[in-house]
Amino acid sequence: MSLKVNPDIIKLMGKFGADSASACFNCGNCTAVCSLSTENTPFPRKTIRYLQLGLTDKLAQSPEPWLCYYCGDCSDTCPRDADPGEVMMGLRRYMTSVYDWTGISKFFYTSKAFEVGSILVVALLVGLGFLFFHGPMLTDRVALNVFAPNTTIEILDLIMLAVLSFLLLSNAFFLARGVMGNAAQYIKDDDKAKSPAIMIFGVSLSIYFKEFQEFIIHFFTQKKFASCEDKKQKILWINHLLIMTGYSIIFLMVVVGLRWFQRDEILSVFNPIRFLGYYSTFAILYGTTYAMIGRLKKSSRSHMKSHSTDWAFLILLWLTTFTGILIHFTRLLEMPLSTYYIYVIHLMIAVPMLVIEVPFAKWTHQLYRPLVLYLMKVKQRALA
């Protein structure tokens, strides 16, 4: 079988934030010190070698970039300063663009002008939508659901959810197809005639069901973060969990449960919805602030280098949460006009973050990592 070779991939990787792969001379030290590397999935050495040879097809089928949680041990001990941990991070960005059939991820990761411009364009569209279609601005009381009826916003949210889910899941399909590889490898010649009717990538649907708990566990716990021997990695794991859980709860509340979350009456402090809102606010503000300070101070190996998209995600998420706090206080202080204006600004930040980050950028990692771990278990059982 012929392999597709792209000799320019090393140059392209510089735009994805990993320009040191050419310094690697394949000594294997990085794989030896990595606590997550195994005999069946050795990395970073093998993956970097694919990159150096320009084997883009091999890279598309490689699960290893998603098995790396960037503790930095490999980069700290690299005799050539090739920074394999950062190369793996760059490969995750590159692979995200490979799976994205729209091509938007590639532009987002390789062009700062496109990145900033796309965020501004979406924000402008949201602002213009409110300028022309907002409801009455009552000033005798705060009436947010008159200015922006939650039923209307909810419908728009659900439309956005459907579109973003389609884009994200369709991209995940291409990831799964690459990781699972050739379907023929799972079916023995003497079993072809009696293979089950429902097959996905050559594997019985029943196997996917049997191993599905693997996806659930890793999606909600991201426990592989804590498997790294570096003690700092466990702190980063907790911080990551705070951001992920806070983000996920708020996302569900403002997209799926908006009619219960966005209400003109002030709910009791002991109301579960309000409690979840407070937890999410703390989790996101603390998590994003910790991550940004870490990147400014370069306090850990994974924070030594930052791509512009890393900053975009953290800043947009922080601003979304902060403006949400301001809305809460202006409602409590009964400041109608301030509430309406800040609400518009809040959505001009939140919507671009969701539209860009969920299907095309940083948030894809939240799905791709557990998905790859799950598919590896499926693949292992199918081959056995």
Order of helices and strands: HHHHHHHHHHHEEHHHHHHHH
Q: What oligomeric state do these chains adopt?
A: single chain
Category by helix and strand content: mainly alpha
Radius of gyration from the alpha-carbon trace, in angstroms: 23 Å
* Percent helix: 55-70%
Q: Extract low-pLDDT stretches.
A: none
Strand order, largest beta sheet: 1-2
Walk me through what this model shows:
It is a single chain. The protein has 2 domains: 9-99, Fumarate Reductase Iron-sulfur Protein, Chain B, domain 2; 104-383, no CATH class. Helix content is 67%, strand content 1%. It is built from 19 helices and 2 strands. β1 (199-200) and β2 (203-204) form a beta hairpin. α7 packs antiparallel against α8, α8 (104-110) crosses α9 and α9 packs across α18 (336-360). The radius of gyration is 23 Å and the shape is globular.
List keywords for this structure.
19 helices; two-stranded antiparallel sheet; Fumarate Reductase Iron-sulfur Protein, Chain B, domain 2; 67% helix; globular; mainly alpha; 384 residues
Outline of this structure?
The protein is an all-alpha fold and 384 residues long. It has 19 helices and two strands.
Task: Lay out the secondary structure.
Elements: H1 9-15, H2 29-33, H3 45-53, H4 56-60, H5 64-67, H6 73-77, H7 84-99, H8 104-110, H9 112-133, H10 144-147, H11 150-180, E1 199-200, E2 203-204, H12 205-210, H13 212-221, H14 231-256, H15 258-261, H16 272-297, H17 308-332, H18 336-360, H19 364-383
Antiparallel strand pairs: 1-2
Helix pairs in contact: 7-8, 8-9, 9-18, 11-18, 11-19, 13-19, 14-16, 16-17, 17-18
